[in-house]
Amino acid sequence: MATYLELDKCNLLCSCKQTSPLCTLYFCRHCLCLRCPNCVSHEVDSYYCPNCLENMASAEAKMRKHRCGNCFDCPSCGHTLSTRATAVVHAKPDEPGRTTAQKAYFLACGFCRWITRDSGIPDQQQAAGGWQEKISPHFKRISELIDSYHHLAVQEKEDQEWNKFARKRNYMILLERYPVLNPRLRRYCSSSWTTPNREVAPGKKVTIPAAEAS
């Protein structure tokens, strides 16, 4: 038991002559050999939450900003919060002398014992889907910056493509200026470097509003 967590105690030999523990090796079903992380290329097959194992598509994961809507991290220690249920006694409005018990759910951390009740977050009537995330006051400002930088990136990409096209066009100008080249070569170059019409949209000035100190 003293060496249970020492993973480097027993290493296996990879096909690239490097030793690695068993938990970091992969088995290739095509060549029937062990492969270390340096011998394989990782590709994202699907996105899922490592806590609740909820699977989602790439577009949905991008829309959710790669965050699960049912799992939360502890703000104190970063551990995953778990849902706890309790019974809350309420008085009946039509019968003041009688009470009824109703289930209520709150989030608790099993590591540092932090609960949502300590922060003044009210209990929810359902176990999942009722916890709403607070919107950051800087959310609007960050969204404006992301849109502005995205527009700048698209504009820079278009300029780079146009510069490549312009360099090819300069080569054609040299061929027209010096007609001493072989006519057969000129016909080949003229057929290879055809220049399509490029519709240039009017430039849009990107204005980023200045941030105000609070």
From TrEMBL:
<comment type="similarity">
    <text>Belongs to the dynactin subunit 4 family.</text>
</comment>
<keyword id="KW-0597">Phosphoprotein</keyword>
<keyword id="KW-1017">Isopeptide bond</keyword>
<dbReference type="GO" id="GO:0005813">
    <property type="term" value="C:centrosome"/>
</dbReference>
<protein>
    <recommendedName>
        <fullName>Dynactin subunit 4</fullName>
    </recommendedName>
</protein>
<keyword id="KW-0175">Coiled coil</keyword>
<dbReference type="GO" id="GO:0005938">
    <property type="term" value="C:cell cortex"/>
</dbReference>
<keyword id="KW-0206">Cytoskeleton</keyword>
<comment type="subunit">
    <text>Subunit of dynactin, a multiprotein complex part of a tripartite complex with dynein and a adapter, such as BICDL1, BICD2 or HOOK3. The dynactin complex is built around ACTR1A/ACTB filament and consists of an actin-related filament composed of a shoulder domain, a pointed end and a barbed end. Its length is defined by its flexible shoulder domain. The soulder is composed of 2 DCTN1 subunits, 4 DCTN2 and 2 DCTN3. The 4 DCNT2 (via N-terminus) bind the ACTR1A filament and act as molecular rulers to determine the length. The pointed end is important for binding dynein-dynactin cargo adapters.</text>
</comment>
<keyword id="KW-0963">Cytoplasm</keyword>
<dbReference type="InterPro" id="IPR008603">
    <property type="entry name" value="DCTN4"/>
</dbReference>
<keyword id="KW-0832">Ubl conjugation</keyword>
<dbReference type="GO" id="GO:0030016">
    <property type="term" value="C:myofibril"/>
</dbReference>
<dbReference type="Pfam" id="PF05502">
    <property type="entry name" value="Dynactin_p62"/>
</dbReference>
<dbReference type="GO" id="GO:0001725">
    <property type="term" value="C:stress fiber"/>
</dbReference>
<keyword id="KW-0007">Acetylation</keyword>
<dbReference type="GO" id="GO:0005869">
    <property type="term" value="C:dynactin complex"/>
</dbReference>
